[in-house]
Design brief:
54 residues; mainly alpha; 2 helices; 87% helix
Length: 54
């Protein structure tokens, strides 16, 4: 289970970086960028809180 969580965390981090690149290249608008990163960063915070509580 821990390996799957680590994979999801790494994938989410890469997704945020990819969204940042798309925004800088003006491929997506600001609202889309905010929506993507808000959801992914929220997921990462949730995972981190879970790790701390264990």
């Amino acid at each position: 289970m821990e390996d799957a969580t680590n994979d999801l965390v790494e994938l989410s981090k890469k997704f945020v970086k990819f969204a940042e690149k798309l925004y800088k290249d003006e491929k997506i608008d600001k609202e889309t960028y905010i929506e993507i990163t808000r959801k992914k960063k929220g997921f990462l915070r949730c995972i981190e809180k879970d790790r701390i509580s264990k």
